[in-house]
Description:
The complex is a heterotrimer.
Chain A: H1 2-19, H2 21-29, H3 55-71, H4 76-102, H5 111-127, E1 133-136, E2 143-148, H6 170-182, E3 187-194, E4 203-210, H7 212-225
Antiparallel strand pairs in A: 1-2, 2-4, 3-4
Helix pairs in contact in A: 1-3, 1-4, 4-6
Chain B: E1 23-29, E2 35-40, H1 50-71, E3 93-98, E4 102-107, E5 113-118, H2 126-141, H3 155-165
Antiparallel strand pairs in B: 1-2, 1-5, 3-4, 4-5
Helix pairs in contact in B: 2-3
Chain C: H1 5-22, E1 28-34, E2 40-45, H2 54-73, E3 83-88, E4 92-97, E5 103-108, H3 115-129, H4 145-164
Helix pairs in contact in C: 3-4
Amino acid sequence: MFxxxxxxxxxxxxxxxxxxxxxxxxxxxxxVGKIKQYxxxxxKPLSKGKQEVSLSAFAFLFSELVQYNQxxxxxxxxxxxxxxDAGYAVGARxxxxxxxxxxxxxxxxxxxxxxxxxxxxVWKVLFxxxxxxxxxxxxxxxxxxxxxxxxxxxRFISIPKDxxxxxxxxxxxxxxxxxxxxAGFPAVVTAHFVPVEGQQRPRTTILIKFAEEVLTSxxxxxxxxx
Amino acid sequence: MQxxxxxxxxxxxxxxxxxxxxxxxxxxxNRNGVCLLYREWNRLLHTLNAQQDHKLMFGxxxxxxxxxxxxxxTNAEKGNLGVPQLSGQGCSFHSFRTNTYKLSFxxxxxxxxxxxxxxxxxxxxxxxxxxxxxxYVEYVVKNPLYAPGTPIRSELFNTSLDQYVRTxx
Amino acid sequence: xCMSHQDSIAxxxxxxDSEKKRFPMAAIYSLYIINKSGGLIFYKDYGSxxxxxxxxxxxxxxxxxxxxxxxxxxxxxTGCSGIELxxxxxxxxxxxxSLTGTKFFVVCEPGTQHMESLLKDIYELYTDYVLKNxxxxxxxxxxxxxxDINLSQAVQKDRVAMLGR
Lengths: 226, 169, 165
């Protein structure tokens, strides 16, 4: 029992090392070559810095994260959940940072606002580009999809045949869930491979299914507004 | 009274492109793997004693030959790996190159193997090996005092070989 | 209509020539990757006559591994790193060994150029799509979809380049 509770901690730490490296390195670059020394870390400006990190370094680290988690689980659903949890911690922190940096400490309160924030701002900070598409689900009102032709975390990963529909994008789904959850839009987020016609490789779709209360409060606001 | 035509070596030696001391060593093996001749001109590294060195060289050639015969991509009828093959049977090789040396290899129909180890940037030595084979025929095979299968001890062969090898670029 | 014998031969020859251009001979016959202990971890055939079965390809790989080591022991000077090119009667074999001991070798038509750079490209694909894949176990046979896709693209590109010359 004790061991179990200690696990998520190490996993979160690993995850953090992995995906927030992008920004932490940028921060590490601050002050390099400058004469000005800040006596207090809080005095440092939160500039964007250099927003680049070696893709190989990230790929190896992410690969280790997946391998480590693989040794800790019995089935694929469990592995997916652990990757998602790892991403969740990243997402929560990313929201905090970006609200401070880009939004003047304001948080997005509209549903579509937060979705486009994830689709563009978050994606740009994490992956260096805006996500390929953001769509509304056709069958259900409460479903949205962010699609990516080649998700960065899946760039070098081939899923073995015996793992079925497992997608390492679960980590990214976790990030999205972390951002949405911390912003007050609880949702179930999952990653899926979707075959594309005329393409050898399927694209990855991050499916966001909002919790019931989000939609009701959303429609409440809409009705109030009307 | 005149006997058969002169004793000059029939094909003229291939034209050397540049002079230099490029050759490191040479081996001659017969079909049973007996080392008939080992000449050394410029060998800095000796990892093994002479006998083991010859054995290893013969083993390498034997294995490489069966490897090339097995790998031959143009022939569908390949035997099993490691089965000894008659000389001239199956796909063979004529040279290989490493970063420190180039080994050129020739096998006569009677199973005589001539191996010349040279500088890695030496060109195609197939003609040169043929010429050396010719020297062997002239000075060794035609020598009445030479018993086939015994080590070659011919002063004449050695000097002409040394002389020729010096011209190989 | 009358056509001289020579003309008809010339016509036939030019026909053969154009056929060749449309259906170029496979420049590369096969590709092998062996791990540092001599085990075959990848084998792909690009159209050689009489494709080798699994047992034979495993045997050929381990034989090549030992030949590679022996060739180093027979070097006349120090610093030998094994066979780079083997020229056989009907094919050339180019071998590239990475610093970690993994060997890549291609069997191609005699005299095929630019094989060293192709091997380096393949090595790069291996480091990207095999080593960075969390589901790949080191030193084990390579079964990575992305590696296969990118490899066939690299080989295809090489063939197109051959055609252009």
